[in-house]
Amino acid sequence: MESVLLWQLTGIVSAIGGVYLLHKAWHKRFGANLEIIGGVLLILFSIIAWVQTSGADKGTALGIIVLIIVGGLAVLISALQTPKRKAKEGRSPSEHVLSASSAGAMVWLQRIYHGLLLFLLSGLAAVSVSSALFMMFRWLGMEHSVNLTIAAFAFSILWASLAVYVGSQRATMRKSIIILGLAIIPAAALAFKS
What we know:
Blueprint: H1 2-28, H2 33-54, H3 56-81, H4 93-139, H5 144-168, H6 172-193
Helix pairs in contact: 1-2, 1-3, 2-3, 3-5, 4-5, 4-6
Keywords: Membrane, Transmembrane, Transmembrane helix
Transmembrane segments: 6-22, 34-53, 59-80, 116-140, 146-165, 177-193
């Protein structure tokens, strides 16, 4: 029991260190070969540590999920530390105050919605799609542990991909429709199937 906890802590610390080194290399831009190599090796070590806790299939999936969570938190912390842009020229300070106070609530609502869309709803969409894949492969007769491994990998890769998509797209309506559709349609199909 204690060795499992030690491997889990090692996996978490290695994932944090790997993401930190890759983040440092990204800011450095050039001549960051050691940071990139160190970051990738720490991430690999993190996944190996998780394999020691739960076996090759489940441990690898858990390691990737931990890496996605650590990476998402790193992006969130970086975004919160980013300074605000300067106001556009051409308006008087009183006009800026009036426009900021009237639009302040709407800006916060948009930020909250984007945060929910980025983390929670994209995660729910990944759960929905990977669950549908799991049920489809089970219906096709795939062996259970292989099916579970594929679903775990699909979940983590889908969640990361959808979060990157949401974060990179500016069209709020389009990304909302895609994420909500990916969350609702497979879940509804599973509900009607059972």
